[in-house]
Design a protein that fits this description.
Shape: globular
Structural class: alpha+beta
Helix content: 10-25%
CATH superfamily: q2cbj1_9rhob like domain
Strand content: 35-45%
Distance between the termini: 35 Å
Order of helices and strands: EHEEHEEEEEEEEEE
Radius of gyration: 15 Å
Number of strands: 13
Number of helices: 2
Number of domains: 1
Strand order of the largest sheet: 1-10-6-13-4-3-2
Length: 174
């Protein structure tokens, strides 16, 4: 089976990463939800166009890698702050919760000054150690791409994630 996990090194500059992290930390954008201990900043709590601009850049990378045959739409996105002790158990992004139409998942790593927090695909025997500015993307709906995030053992991990669909009626950014 072909490994469809793609990595784009230095997708964002160090300054772009720092700016995104600062938006999360800025008092004007500190509204967040907490999922499994991870602080999530939603679209409504970020400046106009923030998520859309990065989503379009991610879709362009999908097209380069996979030669898309249909348009993609961002279904969900968030900027996440992972603190020591947080992790994400094994899952497939398209399972349940109205996410069954997801086509691709992507993660942009905004920091790398933490221990742990690796992205692991057990069925593919593949582990990615985050590097600041990198984009990682993969199929959201193929069971071979079940993945997990190992526990953050020290430091803070910031990520900007997108989940895209071919179903325009599921888009939440446009």
């Amino acid at each position: 089976m072909e490994n469809l996990i793609k990595i784009v090194p230095n997708f964002l500059t160090a300054q772009e990463c720092e700016d995104a992290v600062n938006l999360h930390k800025n008092s004007a954008y500190t509204k967040f939800i907490k999922i499994s201990g991870v602080h999530i900043t939603k679209k409504s709590d970020m400046p106009e166009g923030f998520y859309e601009s990065y989503s379009n850049k991610v879709i362009a990378e999908y097209d380069k890698a996979y030669s898309l045959n249909a348009p993609l739409y961002p279904q969900t996105s968030w900027l996440a702050h992972w603190t020591t002790g947080t992790n994400s158990p094994i899952h497939l992004d398209s399972e349940g919760g109205g996410y069954e139409t997801l086509k691709y998942s992507s993660i942009i790593y905004l920091t790398d000054s933490f221990e742990g927090g690796q992205l692991v695909f057990p069925e593919l025997n593949y582990t990615y150690t985050p590097q600041k500015g990198d984009l990682v993307f993969f199929p959201a709906n193929d069971p071979s791409y079940r993945h997990l995030v190992t526990e953050i053992t020290s430091g803070e991990r910031y990520t900007l994630s997108f989940w895209h669909t071919e179903d325009s009626s599921k888009s939440n950014l446009i």
